[in-house]
Fold these 2 entries.
Entry 1:
Amino acid sequence: MEKTLTLKEYVKKNDKEIAGLIVKMADIAERISQELPYRRGKADTKNVFGETQLVADKWTDKFIIGEFRKSRLVKTMKSEEQGEIVKLNDNGIFNITLDPLDGSSNMKSNNLVGTIFGIYKKDLPTQGKNQIGAAYILYGPVMSLVYATKNSVNKFFYTKKGFILKQKNIKLPEPGILYGIGGLRKDWLPKFRKYIEGLEAKGYKLRYGGSFVGDFNQVLHYGGIFAYPALINKPNGKLRLSAESNPMSYIIKQAGGASTNGAGSILDIEPESINQRIPTYVGNKGLIKNLEKIL
Ligand code: AHG
Ligand code: MN
Ligand code: MN
């Protein structure tokens, strides 16, 4: 029986270049999970997207940026909660994109929320295909950390002895069985609605939890498709290219799946602005290819 590896052992052995970053993310996760029960309610501010910020959004944003600043590993960060790119260390190596707390609207009901990281060496903003890694933390029921590099996608569970390796080299199961779609059905574009009705007719199961990180995680484990699509009244959908869609598109690609904004891989999109939204569809390659044909 193989010895269970700790996150630190695994990442130092397999992804040395970003080991320091991933270990720092694990420390950050532990502290955030301890703070979330207390950081509740609405703050009295809005972010650059005009969304009312929660106390937890602001606290996690400030905490994570502070921790990476102290680590001296990070040159700049672009957080969903900050309108501009934040400078941390002139001689830092990495540039990080951040959604400090994804799924904030789930906080009231204690549904799944998480943190999403994109890891670059190139200066931001840049295409998602320039990521050298991506990761997300899921706060519960068992706190998990998933990270991907060009080598593989790996999952770790938090235990009283810290994060341990649970699954390595995760690949999307074929065929998928789930679908989860954001926005209101009445606002989906007719062609997209027809595509989804086709999946329903084939028996795909609806799983929608209201946080990208939680809904993405389900597709990663069961296969299928998650989308926050272009809507009639919001042609760019809701998800942010840099903080949300690029990191998850990187992870799904390393797991053998694909992403699209309707026309082509999200990872190829040349950012027009650092706060750009993008229609986001991720899942099994076959499903994404079929979707592109009908869109
Ligand atoms: P965030 O909490 O970081 O703003 O992200 C919320 C996003 C994403 O997590 C989720 O897929 C989507 O908002 C849900 O939007 P609706 O509430 O419109 O369904
Ligand atoms: Mn988010
Ligand atoms: Mn967020």
Entry 2:
Amino acid sequence: RRAELRPPLVSPAMERRDERGWVEVISGPMFSGKSEELIRRITRYQIARIPTQTFKPMIDDRYATDEVVSHSQLSTAAQNATDSDELLRLVEDRTVVVGIDEGQFFDEGLIDVVEALARSGKKVIIAGLDLDFLRRPFEPIPTLMTRAEYVTKTLAVCHRCGGAGMYTQRVIQSDELVVLGATAAYEARCRHCYDPTESHQERLEIDEDE
Ligand code: ADP
Ligand code: MG
Ligand code: ZN
């Protein structure tokens, strides 16, 4: 199912052309500061009294549901959306800046929604993983990067050697694409320390409630 084939999800008010809109993507592995950077940008608009709304997918219930919280405990208020259609419905007319965290957990309809919002004059800032734990492109983030005016690639510190952490290494055994609520299941790794077979070699006990 290709996102381009969907009918446009644009309300009449949103068809108005407004040059102020654009798309920013913040992307990299886990622990690279994506949420921190999103929170920093949103907070600056709030200080300037520019109306913002921040969203996160319903799937992500690791932290308080009405906030985006970084691993470094920065936070900003956030609304939950079950899918991209609901996100679009929740965006208010007066909102100028739309923040989206964990964008990789939204459906591919997010691509059309983000472009519709940008065309209607809103600045849309999406944070999310570019790759899954096997280094496969994690849609819709890679496609959103190609539709964005601004792309920031964030790097973590490699948990093993301290180098440039580009990849998310799963360190427990699981075949699920997503192991939620288990920060201890992942490490950031550089290209030298990343090993896709490692998660199948060792099995660590993890606390699902962490
Ligand atoms: P992301 O959203 O990309 O997963 P966060 O913004 O939630 O990242 O968290 C970034 C913070 O995580 C850093 O400022 C630091 O305090 C902490 N952190 C923990 N492990 C690492 C690591 N390996 N590399 C960089 N930061 C780390
Ligand atoms: Mg994050
Ligand atoms: Zn390394």
